[in-house]
Amino acid sequence: MLNQSGSLDRVFQALADPTRRDIVERLVRGPASVSELARPLAMSLPAVMQHIQVLETCGLVRSEKTGRVRTCHIEPGVLRMTEEWIAAQRTAWERRLDRLGDYLAEHGDTPEQGSTR
Amino acid sequence: MLNQSGSLDRVFQALADPTRRDIVERLVRGPASVSELARPLAMSLPAVMQHIQVLETCGLVRSEKTGRVRTCHIEPGVLRMTEEWIAAQRTAWERRLDRLGDYLAEHGDTPEQGSTR
What we know:
Two copies of one chain form a homodimer.
Chain A: H1 4-15, H2 18-27, E1 32-33, H3 34-38, H4 45-57, E2 61-66, E3 69-74, H5 76-107, H6 111-114
Antiparallel strand pairs in A: 1-3, 2-3
Helix pairs in contact in A: 1-4, 1-5
């Protein structure tokens, strides 16, 4: 499918900017035109379009033009891939804590001692 | 607490690099010394230390020196904050899909129209 590592580079890079996160936060609530996306942002339309371009390049957003209006949509699969990477790290960390707990329970003397963790 | 937006900038920026993600993937499995972290990486020790520095600055990793050995640990709270932002986006997107489903059910032409929530 995707080169996931290269994709994650670009997705995390895209999300490292507060304006681009604002755009994502807007688009998860529904599609929006470029001018709707620009309205609450304190910057020029070309600057907004550059941010949208970064979001499109990493696959988080796609857009289509109908007449003179370009409408942007979120691409949930890329968001999900990013969430999965982070969740995998959290899960690995929790598993380590569990193993540590098991080890302490096994090597503790009595259950009462083990409960002091 | 933290300035979450500024933190997210730095955390996403830190995660946009495959070496730094490798280091995170190693540390969620348990603490490691700088030289243990460097061993599988095809780069100089100073380069690895720079990556660790970026991870420490954004709060994903903390380290402590005992004698001549610096040991690195993951900081799960920052990982969790990042996961929460992404999960919030996914949730907002899913809620929108639900509302869209409700709307279609309500405005569809089935006789049970009123009974759909």
